[in-house]
Amino acid sequence: MKKVIYIILLVFPVLAWSQAKEGKAAFIGYNGIYIYNLFKPASVQHPDGDVIGFKLDRKSSRETAWTTIQKFSSPSNYDELVKGYEKAKTKVFEYRQESAYGIDEVWPIYKKTFTYDSLSIYVTQQALAVAFNLLLVDTTANVADTYQYRVVQVKRDQTNGALYTSTPVSYAYKFPANKPKAKLRSLLGGINRLVFVAKATAEEPEGLLIKRKTEDGKFERVMPFYTIEKIKDSITYMVSDEDVSSEKLYQYTVTPVNRYGGGANSVSDTISANAIDQKLLIPKGLTAKADSLNNSITLNWGFLKPDYVSTVMIYRSEAYEDGYTYLSSSQTGVYVDKSVIPGKKYYYYLTITDKFGRPSERSTKVFGLVQNLSKPIAPQYVKVASSTGGNVLTWEDYSPATRGYRVYRTDQIEGKLVPASDFIYVDSKLEGKYSYTDTSSLIKAKGYAVRLENLSNVQSEFSKVVYVADKDKTILTPAIQDASTDQKYVYLFWKQPTSSTGVPSGYNLYRKIDDGKYEKLNKKMINGTKTSYRDSIVNMAAEIYYKLTAVNTNNVESEFSEEFQAKKSSQEVYPPSFLKSFVTNDKNSVALQWQPSQSKIKNYSIYRYARGEEPTVIAEVAGTTRSFIDKKYNKDKTNYYYIVANNDKGITSIKSNEAFVILNK
């Protein structure tokens, strides 16, 4: 290891202090207060004039008298210096055996004159300075108090000679440094190398308190090699720790301090480091367990070094060799994949990112397969149309769990369905929209249905049977049955026409305003399952008329329905508001309540209907009425209600808000 000298700038000035003058001679240090002895060396054997020794006095801020805490002299022989040196090693902030000067190097120089001449480079090391009593360490001070020190010469007659007093010092002192930020961590040759940076302050740090923690311990001081470098307005702290094990995880902090280790305040970020073999981080014992009941696959695994793990990355593919993509992450030893499709086999492997951001090699691969034994939903939006090439059947299915389809046909209405196609496999390019053309001329097919099979080989029920319409026959003409209006819209209602010769595929709605021409309203055909339409009207004062046609699966349009005129909404009559409904306690009737119309009215018409049925008037009540009891409601369906207000001129309001009830059996 490279040697580095941590310099204590010892100055040997001409002593100019008097008993009444104080100087900066004491400093807060690591585990003690450090005091300079600025006098020339003196002992009984080698006095400085009539001075044969010294004493160190101390006074706290709560005391008025000085107390002598140490009497000492400069070392006068080799053994005395060795003894003092051994004690000093455990006292000082920094002692490094690999870079320390030995007594055998220093003693031959010192014994020539028993002065500090030619020793300045040696006593820059704290342990030697303490061994020569140039630097004194008080380890008995109370951290909660403030102290002053004085160093006093002792003459041969035991009277005091010259002395000097330090300025007050306290453990409350904090070294003025900014918090070091973690910048870099590297592992080279089994050495943990760490770099911290901070913005420089006026007073540059002269020491670094380094603490290290293992996963099973606490932060303790260590003394690795370090450097402090100021570049422009920033300070860089570099630490190289050789005393590490590849089996342990380490965490480090650094704190800038003065040359004696005092004033520790700005603790750095924590940097984690280790030199572990990355193969020890590979997840072990990876298993995959399929849960068909909950439609999931559970992955379990273990770690050889769990304390080193930061994140587990999970990858999945539908093929063993390739195609793996990132699925999710985990910080435990288990992950439940709930995004699986029943009937598909999934392959998994894991990698680990350790606490230093390094990825491990991948784990072994495992697979899981979930089965779904429940019946899937049959294909939707099944339609059939005749063409010169045959009957074309179309349907839609967007389930990712579908394996394929089979088309069935019948030669009579509600007849037996028999297979018409081979198995048709799912094709992702079709984006869920499929077709099949029946070119068979052996039978005269009338109806078709589709059945799907999922990836677990479970078949659905048959889809809705659709029938081929005769091109020479049109379907029944629909009839508009009712309409209502408000200030913006006309609401049209009709009943779906059905017959064995054709089933409506959709509707076209036509409108005429005043004496104009009929124009088709819908840009796209209205779905055949609908029986209502909302028409937006700009001029409600106009005369508005409608006609409706039905369209079969061959796009053959029926005759026009009879002309229907929409009644204008009168702004003079307002409907009741805040209509509410609820089932009575005995569940034998429905109670309705509302707030009155803001118009002068004669009575209210109360309407009731169920889905698929036309609204009917169930009662007319006086205009002063605010409630109604319906004892004849349909207990097997959801009942919907609305109210219309009528004035004495026969003008009606638009519908009130709707209310509904569901009987809880």
From TrEMBL:
Entries under InterPro entries matching the protein: FN3_dom, FN3_sf, Ig-like_fold
Ranges where the Fibronectin type-III domain occurs: 474-572, 575-665
This protein's name: Fibronectin type-III domain-containing protein
